[in-house]
Amino acid sequence: MTPPRRQRRYPQQEPLPPAPGKRGEEKNPERLYVVAGADEDGSRAALDLVTLIVARAEPPPSATPEQAALLRLCTSPLSVAELSAYLNLPFSAVTVLITELLTAELVQARAPIVRQAVPDRSLLEAVMHGLQRL
Amino acid sequence: MDFKGSDTLPGPRTEDHLPHTAQAAVKIVIVGGFGVGKTTMVGSVSEIKPLTTEETMTQAGIGIDDNYGSESKTATTVAMDFGRISITDQLVLYLFGTPGQERFWFLWNGLFEGALGAVVLVDTRRLEVSFDVMGRLEERGVPFVVAVNSFPDAPRYPISELRAALDLPEEVPIVECDARRRASSRDVLMTLMRFLHSLAVMGSAR
Question: Engineered SS bond to B25: which of A50, A123, B18, B177, CB 3.0-4.6 Å?
Fold first, then answer.
């Protein structure tokens, strides 16, 4: 087999997120926050693509159409990614909506299990067991 | 904005609802070049019809798809397909198929940081398109396995030659697969999980 050949790389000492100041130079894309509302202090809940969202209440009369639609979708748990898909809204826009609903205590967020430096073996075994049944 | 209102919105089919007991989710990322079969693999193992989440960029995506027409190069929306596998009543696994370009990864919070691991899907006709993504995963310390999607007209190489060309250490699994087949895609995921498990065993023995 003739090249192309690759050269292995190694974990970097510095943790990953790019320095905010470099954004312009590196042309990392910016998110657009399409659905406005709340979020006055600029803080958003730390929502992952696979954070599970569950409605805690019926949509109140004060809910916006977007909020009401989201609440109706997650009467049973749904990930942020699925909500983004079903609502046909960008991920960042959905996280803004969910943050509003979290603040209003209309939804509950169930955090994902993320990779640890030393992974949880019982978690990995559970996933393997589940895959075997496929 | 073009929000259509709730009446016309599709939602999950009744059989696609997760149980209320679903407490937490984990994710695995399937990454590779355009047309390498990421969405095919997601679709072949997912219990739901693959869905698409989008993110919007303020700038045109220049050179996103090297082998596609110019219309995609002015797109400001980036899409990512994903699927789902219920592991237990409490635990759900999500699979995301994402392009190899790192600039996309920032669009979705923690796409790789929180993932259990990744599958790098490669096509032996265009091996080099996966080089950069492997390097970036190595730099970020994201464990991954390599799955060679066996396209009928793609050249076949012994795994040892692929390992040399990809400069991968012995312990990183390289497997062949047919992303269209559920059993084959499932085996790739099992290979990743066994690899992660071996890392966990090594890590806790240290």
Answer: A50
d(CA B101, CA B31): 9
Tell me what ipTM this predicted complex has.
Answer: 0.86
Q: How much is the pLDDT for B59?
A: 54
Instruction: Note which residues in 113-142 of chain B have CB less than 8 A from chain A.
Output: 113-117, 127-128, 131, 134-136, 138-142
CA distance linking residue B61 with residue B77, whole number of Å = 8
Tokens of B171: 């312990």
H/E stretch holding A78: strand A78-79
Question: Which tokens is B124 given?
Answer: 């032996």
Nearest CA in chain B to A81: B53
Q: Where are the alpha helices (DSSP H) in B24-179?
A: 38-45, 102-105, 131-140, 159-166
Give the whole-angstrom CA distance, residue B33 versus residue B65: 8
- Tell me the CATH number of domain A30-37+44-110, given options 3.30.200, 2.60.40, 1.10.10, 1.10.287: 1.10.10
pLDDT digits (tens, 9 = 90+) for B10-38: 789 988 999 999 999 999 999 998 889 99
- Give which of A75, A115, A116, A123 to mutate to test B binding, by max B Cβ within 10 Å: A115
Domain that holds residue B125: 29-205
